[in-house]
Amino acid sequence: MESFIKDLLTDKIIEDAFQAFSFNKEECHFHGGFENLVYECRKNDQAYILRFVHSSHRVSDYVLAELEFIDYLNKHDASVSMVIPSKHNEFIEIFDANQGYFSVCLFNKAPGTFIKDEINDQAFVKYFGEEVGKLHSLTNDFKPKHKRYRFDEEDYISVSKKYLPKKYEGIYDIHDDLIFNINKIEETRETFGLIHTDLHFHNMFYDGKKLTFFDFDDASYKYKISDIAIILFYSFLFWNIEDDAQEKLINFLKTFLKGYRKYHPISEESLRQLPMFFKLREIILVLVLASSEEEKAMNHFIHTHWDYILDRKNLIDIEVLIKAVSED
């Protein structure tokens, strides 16, 4: 998040937003923010997440499209945090700022906490695959009133150019070549649709029985294999690119796909595209960290991954992976 956005969120906007969603000041506290600013509110033993989205990040129509998608998923038995309308029965309330405006929306806070040791539990991993497969199956029949953007329409590059050191600017050529090649992939009902696009373990909670997905802020029309690539990347390849990462990834993916295929098919051809989406996530992560002024995190990530990004190396041996996870 660019620092000026925090300065635009005045006490009056915050208090007016609390009132619009039937909270008082004492019931809410600041929870944090990376691309959006978030408050946690509590009423009658129920926790809620109140989110402030500045128009420089997402215009209101895109926020409405996100909430419409979440509401659809919730009504079709997907494990997502429910959207709660305001006291005016609106999914978003809009508040003008000195520059642009804030779209404010409310969600039930997901039960449970972040996933930790469950990643090594085969029963959980299979269930996790089922829930992601369900999301990808449901998107096939989703016909929205408000439409999100395609993955290649999001403009994180122009913002990053204000902050990314010149010595790393070669990343833009690699990005453009990668997008060109990804866009050659055929878009079918089975391979392409509106997806979460950011399914790492900080965007879901588990309470021992139920997994709940949240933060669909980056949802876009994209290849479904990207969601699986994100899960694998952050679980096994984000900070650890040692020799054992591939073995751990394969063991996880074999079980995950048993659950996933219960609700949605996935082809060998799609699995072969994983390296491209790992690479895309590496690049986007550098650009987003630069844009958010998270210099320390960006420098650490570049230090551990730059050879892979710049030399266009792959983090896994795709042939070994394909052989290991092929259906019996």
Structure, explained:
With 328 residues, this protein is of the alpha+beta class. Helix content is 43%, strand content 15%. Strands 1, 2, 3, 4, 5 and 6 form a six-stranded antiparallel beta sheet that branches. Strands 7-10 form a two-stranded antiparallel ribbon. It has a two-stranded antiparallel ribbon with strand order 8-9. It starts with a helix and ends with a helix.
Compact summary:
The protein is of the alpha+beta class. It contains twelve helices and ten strands.
How many helices? The count is 12
Report the sheet with the most strands, covering strand number, pairing sense and barrel closure.
Answer: 6 strands, antiparallel
Ranges where pLDDT stays below 50 over 5 or more residues in a row are: none
The helix content is 40-55%
Number of E-state strands: 10
Relative strand content? 15-25%
Distance between the termini: 46 Å
Order of helices and strands: HHEEEHEEEHHHEEEEHHHHHH
> What coarse outline follows from CA principal-axis ratios?
globular
The radius of gyration over CA amounts to: 20 Å
Given helix and strand content, the structural type is alpha+beta
Mean pLDDT over the full residue set: 91
